Amino acid sequence: MSSTSNGAPARVLVVEDEPDLRNLLDRSLEQAGYKVFLAEDGIEALEKATNETLDLVLLDLMLPHVDGIEVCRRLKRDERTARLPVIMLTARQEPVDRIVGLELGADDYITKPFNLRELLLRVGAVLRRSRGERGRSKVLGFAGLRLDPAARIVTVDGADVHLTVREYDLLYFLLSHPNHVFSRSDLLRQVWDYDFEGYDRTVDAHVARLRRKLGPPGEWIETAWGVGYKFHPPEG
Length: 236
Ligand code: CA
Description:
By secondary structure, this protein is of the alpha/beta class. It folds into two domains: 11-131, Response regulator (Rossmann fold, 3-Layer(aba) Sandwich), CATH 3.40.50.2300; 140-231, Arc Repressor Mutant, subunit A (Orthogonal Bundle), CATH 1.10.10.10. The protein is 41% helix and 21% strand. The protein contains eight helices and twelve strands. The chain has helices spanning 19-31, 42-51, 68-77, 95-103, 116-135, 165-176, 184-191, 200-214, and strands at residues 11-15, 35-39, 56-60, 86-91, 108-112, 140-142, 145-148, 153-156, 159-161, 182-183, 221-224, 228-231. The model has no long low-confidence stretch (mean pLDDT 86). Bound molecules: calcium ion.
């Protein structure tokens, strides 16, 4: 799902001066589960970026007053916003600006006209990357179950559990969001980058294998009937 590590929806600022495109992005991101903020020009963008707690900025390059390059430059220079991921929206005829955008520290760029699904995938990927960088080395432990993200090692009562890459990614995601219910499509989007509308049974099969491999801690991956799954660790 489009959530941050505390389970709240990720907060995305859309900076776009064309009303139709701004509305389209607003609706699409909201449908995908994001909390959306809007800005129509560079000045409003800088205000919102410093006044709101955000997880990502989708930044159009050609903007009135202060253009996207300058907005990006100022965001990266201000320590309050320097780590805020930025995806630049560029037009095809702006190859130089595009490079400059990345040199300025933008995390990715998307060329207009874009495919919405592609845009949502990029947003998800950049958010995952930035979350990963923030929490990379924190070992997750719940009773006898431990997951070490730096080493990608999972143990139960000190014994290694051998997981496939996807099983590990799924477990890591669930353990990073305890007590949060995720639908199968949330999990597909988060763990299987490109299987967006994919296969619910893929998730079920991986959960079944995880439960089997983990033994008793596997029971903490609970089925939320009619919805999906949640990781429910024992209290204390
Ligand atoms: Ca524009």
